[in-house]
Amino acid sequence: MKLLHDLQTELAQLNAESRLRKRRTLQSPCAPEVKVDSRTLINFAANDYLGLANHPQLIAAAQQAVQQWGVGAGASHLVSGHFDVHAEMEQALARFVDMPAALGFTTGYMANLGIVTALANRGDVVFADKLNHASLIDAQQLCRAEVKRYPHKDLDALTRLLADTPARHRFIVTDAVFSMDGDLAPLEELLALAKQYDALLIVDDAHGFGVLGPQGRGSLAHLGLQDERILYMGTLGKAAGVHGAFVAGHETLIQYLLQTARSGIFTTAAPPMLAACVLACLPLIEQGDALRAQLRAHITTLRKALSVSAGAETRTTTTAQWQLLPSDTAIQPIVLGDNAEAVRVANALWERGIWAPAIRPPTVPIGTARLRVSLSAAHSPAQVQTLIDALRDLQ
After folding, report:
1. What is the chain's mean pLDDT, rounded?
2. What CA–CA distance (Å, rounded) separates 35 from 31?
């Protein structure tokens, strides 16, 4: 069969380019130390930034919720799958991020697909950062609007595009914390441009929610931003430690998405048990200043050890070949450039009992293969030091 032959050829090519991916299988819960593929490793691969994924209070909330609500929702939200606990979760999330209303989605990927494809139609224009998450890129490809991508965080280029592009409606779409670089979008300036050019600013805060801002309320709170022309997406499977996502904003936007977002309408609702877990996690996030301080300490320790000050504005090399990108967040990318080199170093760390995944194209641009180190408040100082010592030995 020609199709199978061609697919096998493509897979062989990926392998030759050191781009063939492999799933690791865990035999233990998500934690700073995990058993994976029958080995015990320090886990710098997960996005469990506050260490809540295996928190006893969330486990207890899940157990109680299963007894009360069962396992499955049984239908989509608009049919018969919307439970009291789902509604309570949406209201609590809206209050938490200080937005008028919120709408739950089963994943952040589906939330982004739903937002962009529902709102951006023919005659509209989407202006998108080139390093946006794949879910936003896919949403842009699926929507019926014209899409114009601007170089990463290049406000001058975006301004020119906004000024030169007639549109019925404009949408500026950006990650808040970029998932592979760990840097923050210039949200204040983007909001100013949204006001100047009558655009809706869509912010994907998957990696900021729970970590940034007072009480972990996210990137908007971190910068003190609030405006009716912001549509906010936060995920619940990273710092929140659970699963799912939500969109928050003006009541009209949320009601319109409820009526038109196909990725929310035509899918079975998430189990009500997960909504109960989200309700249990919000107080832990709100009261988690000590956790965020511990995470901040780990970030500072790692960056100082690799001779880069936290929040630096330019890339600084750790060696002639490696670069620790400027990131003031839990995501600490070390660019090695070559795919094979990234795989080699990741494998060498693995042999030393450290899980720090190699990220390669197409997830990142060609020539920028990297280790993506994800720090957690749950890591111990000794575990962070073990990573530092291993990286120094391997440079």
Report:
1. 95
2. 9
